[in-house]
Amino acid sequence: MASNWRARVMSLYWERLLRGRIVDSRFEKRLVNQVRMMVRDPRRMAGVTEAGLNEFCHRFIGQSPGSRIETLTILGADLGSSTQEVALAVGRWNPRDKASLDNLRASITPAYIGLLQLLIRSKRGMEAVVQMRADLLRHEEKDESLDEMLIELSRLLRDWFSIGMMHIRRISMGSPADLLLKLMKYSRMYSPKPILSWEDMEKRLEKRRRIYAYFHPLLENEPLVYVEVALVGSGSVPASFLEMEQGQETTYPPTTAVFYAIASTQTGLRGLTLGEFLIRRVLDELSNDGSIGNLSRFVTLSPLPGFVVYLQQIIRSNTPTCLSREMIAAITRIGVQEDFAPRTGLIELNRTELEKLCFDYLLKAKRRRIRALDPVANFHLRNGASVLRLNWMADTEKQRLRESLGMCVNYEYDKDMIEENHRLYTLHGHIVQNGGEKADKADR
Hints:
20 helices, alpha+beta, 12% strand, globular
């Protein structure tokens, strides 16, 4: 009987919470206190039903972004940590009394942590928690309780999505249809090379292509981060997407694996570095795939999405360059005039100076004196790659021209050097170039 009563209390609280009807009344305060007690005292959690958890998650996910923030604001205010309780616990703390230490720990831990741990037991619980963090990342207004909740959510999700909890899977045309549809949707949202049709999907999954993704057991058929690989047999490293496709037409077996697209699909997991070990895992998968043969090289064909923004900053700071006035005007227009992209002929006329500036951006522009300014460069360098080659006009699609003036980079993963490259970069900001030598330009 008591358990059923507690379950009704929780259900009523959540229902009122989701409808924005929590009011400052004596009854509501008692209700909030009851929820706080249940969340903090594990013995009271037996009254929480799976149906109640499922209902909460379903309603939360279905809310508008503004309503979800209101819900999180109420949770943070009612079930967050209390400075008064912390101060009292600190005053009562005795290093020889374990109970006082437990009390201090409980006062510091927000009560909604217990609620979140309950939620992930339900069918859509992990999806709801990831959505919470996505909403908090997008929320721009300053709020101490929401800032604290974002920190706590990040900590929890970093534990829940540790490398040991993830599993890698190769996606094929035999994968579930809903998974393929999600992959197509996410590629259009996040990938530098979106999958535009089922015919395109079949092309990405044929014999000379691979797509691998990370999955979590509590997010069924949800690719969290994925990488696309082309297997080429030309013996050389492709300097453009056209060369990559031509290399795939050579005789089998292939000699080189080219990682040409990698994308994280969940805003709520942004910044948790899920892809940090994905490429290493894919290296192992490819190396152990007997149907491929012996691959001798593992490289990328990667964009430089921050290069134009870097050039715009240089122009605004009046840093001297040898760019033509017309080129400077074109770079300035990008992002201001919708859908504008510079002419390839104009870019070609400024090639020498643009290559020099791009090398400076790639190898010298740093964030906090260690991290590469370009996010894609930082990702691969953290993973243990070296800079192999800068490729001129490697991708002339309009969006790539707007982001990087068509520049791409080959990073190389040498399995014998990955750990050392990773150590040098993460500790000292040192970027290894072309196996330890200076990075060279593509001969085109």
